[in-house]
Design brief:
- The structure is a single chain.
- By secondary structure, the chain is an alpha/beta fold.
- It has helices at residues 11-23, 48-61, 101-109, 114-120, 139-153, 163-173, 181-191, 199-205, 214-228, 262-266, 275-278, 281-289, 294-299, 314-338, 380-383, 387-403, 410-417, 442-454, and strands spanning 3-6, 27-34, 64-73, 82-93, 122-124, 157-159, 196-198, 233-235, 420-421, 430-431.
- The chain starts with a strand and ends in an 11-residue tail after the last helix.
- The structure holds zinc ion.
- Zinc ion binds next to helix 13.
- Belongs to the CAF1 family.
């Protein structure tokens, strides 16, 4: 896979080509990397207004470093493959931002090239349009124009656990984040009339997956598509312009691997502290017998990191899950036919562990796949990292989720399951709907008036500040 790396040096030459690529999209996925997550207690507050205020503080004091965009084009019919173009915007705020040590360490651990970043990054001025930073043709204006161009396309936007990503994008390339959550929600509903889809919400509440972190879903679906269907996604080559764009941002050998999201790695999710994983010693014993790390398999996060003695390899985890599902199926049909459960020979870690009684205490052994899976370098699972690849994985996951509902077109699927943003530690999503009680923000209304006519924010004359 190759992605187009967008820098301050090539954004001017690339812009028309990027618009062409974006204009063909059936849907577009986003992901971001930023310089910090802010106060973790406040950004997880149960009261949504308190939470929004804390997230707003994060998005206005920390900065975006990477904006990943993947434009997915659906094949004309069932036999035609989908295609995707991946764009990696390397960006830096012109304002002062807090760089949290944990975020810096995380990026460094994942081979983020800081020198290259500061040399290449497109400088942007966050907040509202203003006369001093709307000079046409400057990298800042080009990237703001591109964002508004995406809005004018009126296609569904796909994110994964993306409320904070949307807030960063809004603050960085669109306008000052509204003070009130209701205003922000009203703006989003008006900015994305074709709908916003959060693939984490869909995985948890619609397709009901065992785990819903991005790398897990991506690898699971990639295996599923290879086994049951065909590799249906082709990737557009990176766009070359003069000066040529280095296409070196993904895996060195062009292989596809999975990654962990920044958010999951740097903070311990609240869900880890739930009774689910701390209660029931019996369950803990069962988990201990597994070769893979149960904590990691459920949340994409393990406090032991690379030092964990259990496997974090997604293929090992998915192989084990498939094996468990098969055995459960066999058990079920057995007990249905003769009312008894026969012993199932189950491989275990210790040879003297009794497996005479049919047991779900499985120790996974990798199943021989019928179809060769795309090659993977296991170590890269946890070292590889980029917003662009996360955006690509998010779009891929959405594409498979939508294919699981073949009776629904993309727009029907979005209508049924979209506009519900996943909220950490909450059982209900954030609904992105227009409400009769809350108005959109003044700045959004002013901007929309311009871009709905021009298809671009252009240079707005007569700006107040
Ligand atoms: Zn672990």
């Amino acid at each position: 896979m190759e992605a187009t790396r967008v820098t301050r040096f090539n954004i001017g030459a690339l812009s028309p080509r990027l618009r062409l690529e974006l204009s063909r999209a059936s849907f577009i996925s986003f992901d971001c990397e930023f310089t910090g997550l802010g106060d973790s207690a406040a950004t997880r507050a149960q009261d949504l207004r308190v939470r929004y205020a804390a997230l707003r503080t994060t998005a206005t004091t920390r900065g975006l470093v990477s904006f990943g965009v993947a434009a997915f084009q659906q094949g004309k019919d069932d036999s035609a493959d989908d295609s995707a173009a991946a764009l990696d915007f390397c960006v830096t705020s012109m304002g002062n931002v807090v760089f949290e040590p944990a975020a810096a360490a995380f990026l460094s651990d994942h081979n983020f090239d800081f020198n290259k970043h500061w040399k290449d990054a497109v400088p942007f001025k966050p907040g509202n349009d203003s006369s001093d930073h709307s000079l046409p043709g400057t990298p800042n204006q080009l990237i703001r124009d591109l964002f508004v161009y995406i809005l004018s396309l009126n296609v569904p936007i796909v994110i994964h656990n993306g409320l904070l990503d949307l807030m960063f994008i809004y603050q960085s390339f669109y306008a000052e984040l509204p003070e009130e959550l209701d205003t922000f929600v009203a703006d989003l509903a008006d900015m994305f009339p074709a709908g916003l889809v959060d693939t984490k919400f869909v995985a948890d509440y619609v397709t009901r997956e065992r785990a819903s972190f991005l790398g897990y879903l991506f690898r699971k679906y990639e295996r599923k598509m290879l086994k049951s269907y065909h590799p249906y996604l082709s990737l557009s080559p990176a766009i070359q312009v003069n000066p040529s764009v280095p296409a070196s941002i993904l895996l060195p050998n062009g292989q596809i691997s999975a990654t962990l999201s920044f958010k999951l790695l740097t903070k311990l999710p609240d869900t880890l502290k739930s009774k689910k994983t701390t209660k029931r010693t019996k369950q803990a014993e069962k988990d201990e017998k597994r070769l893979y790390c149960v904590q990691y398999a459920s949340h994409g996060y393990c406090p032991n990191g690379p030092a964990c003695h259990k496997s974090h390899d997604l293929d090992t985890i998915l192989d084990a899950e498939e094996l468990e599902a098969q055995l459960n199926q066999r058990k079920k049909s057995k007990s249905l036919t003769d009312g008894s459960i026969d012993p199932v020979t189950v491989p275990t870690t210790t040879s003297n562990t009794a497996s005479a009684t049919a047991s779900t205490e499985l120790t996974p052994i990798p199943i021989q796949s019928q179809t060769p899976l795309p090659p993977i370098t296991p170590s890269l699972f946890e070292t590889y990292h980029s917003a662009c690849f996360d955006a690509y994985m998010t779009g891929y996951v959405f594409s498979v989720q939508q294919r699981m509902h073949p009776s629904e077109s993309i727009s029907e699927f979005v209508k049924a399951h979209g506009n519900k943003l996943y909220l950490m530690g909450k059982d209900v999503p954030l609904h992105i709907v227009k409400s009769s009680f809350s108005r959109t923000s003044l700045e959004h209304r002013r901007k929309k008036k311009v871009w709905s006519v021009n298809g671009s924010s252009g240079t707005v004359s007569g700006i107040a500040k």
